[in-house]
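Memo to structure team: turn this sequence into structure tokens by end of day. - J.P.
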Amino acid sequence: MKKLLRHLRASSLLLLAITIFGCGGGGGGGGGGSSDSPAVSGNDTAPRGLSSSPYQVQLLGTLGEDNYAVAINDSGQVVGNYLADDGTQHLFRWSDGNLTHLVGSAQATDINDAGEVSGWLFTDKGTEAFIYTDQVYLFDLPEGSSRAYALDSAGRVAGRFSGETEQAFLDEDGAPIMLAPELDAYAIGINDPGQILIKELRPSGFHTLLMQPDGSMVDLGSFGGGCTQASDINESGQVAGWSQTSAGKYQAFLWENGRMISLAEPEWSYSSAVAIDDAGRILIKATVGTEDEVFLWEDGRLTNLENFEREYVEVADMNNEGQIVGWTVAGGGKFQAFLATPVR
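Reply from structure team:
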């Protein structure tokens, strides 16, 4: 059963792993033979044009030194993290113009349409996965560190338990189960049909597996390099993220129907697909020359969002209304969470 949070002495540090640079050993060992179906990928490149579109950008206010928006639901509620004056990190939710502190010494990762939030607490023992509904609930996991990375509209939570190896877990109604316990891996995403993204750690790097509701798994493959990182999955099972080429270059991808399609332009030295909505629109960040740019991919057309006319932005998520959240540099050089809404 979920355990009601009691008073915890905790300390925190900033862990905003929105982008993962480097591919090394993938953070752990892990064996092969991880999927029942072979990986199917390729160097397909999606056709595209180029256009531009305006957005209205709203700063969400401040609760501390720096504020970072990390996820948004279809109702426009935003969840994120902020640094307090003493350097500890806390969790906030923004809704209808109101910025509210939710949890102390914590990291937020996702929010569903019911306003429930997933994440983890920083404790004296490490990290503890939680779901926030009307208050914080912990999971009935074995002794060890844990983190919750994603949740669906029904409140099922996918995450990571760190014991002797990394383990993927799924919690449904307070009853967590370990997924693919033979793998050194953890769960990083889930959609309402019950498809789960699992990051498998391998000696040469890491790959992303798609677990179906029946337990079968497909390796998404790669562009020839050692690492593939999924960022998001929509309700149709389309997956977006980045994959490494044999030359070590990071390229944004769309995976669907067993094929990995590159979304990268030739002049991009780096790109990553950050989020995908149910219509298949994809939010991409890319490095073009020496500049970091934000793009929206839709039906083969790339729209340069021109960083919402700001010198610096970091994008984190997008909802089905096309609203985008992240953070930017505001007054005094501090980071501040923002919400960008397309002007129709």
